[in-house]
Amino acid sequence: MLIVFGIMFGMMYLLIIVPDKKRRKKYSSMLDTMKVNDKITTKGGIVGKIINIKDDYIILETGPDRARVKMLKTGILTIENNDTSEAAVTSEEKK
């Protein structure tokens, strides 16, 4: 009986905990590597360019009228670097 619970815990660890740790690590490294002038998409669907980066928040410039929005870094969904033009984290990886 104890062996069955050990196997179940091992399977749960491999199927749930390991992928989640990997996703969190990738998201954290994405936030650490962002820089000014990167294009981002927020979790709310706002698309814009980073103007300023502080400790826990960023200033985002959006739209043709150049409206500026102050938001937390944790509200970022994807970052598109000007160098690579690739999204760092996609919505498929978030699931």
From TrEMBL:
Keywords: Cell membrane, Membrane, Protein transport, Translocation, Transmembrane, Transmembrane helix, Transport. GO terms for biological process: protein transport. It is found in: Cell membrane. The chain crosses the membrane at residues 6-21. It is a single-pass membrane protein. InterPro entries: Preprotein_translocase_YajC. GO terms for cellular component: plasma membrane. The keyword rRNA processing does not apply. Belongs to the YajC family. NCBIfam families: yajC. This is Preprotein translocase subunit YajC. It comes from Oceanirhabdus seepicola. The gene is yajC.
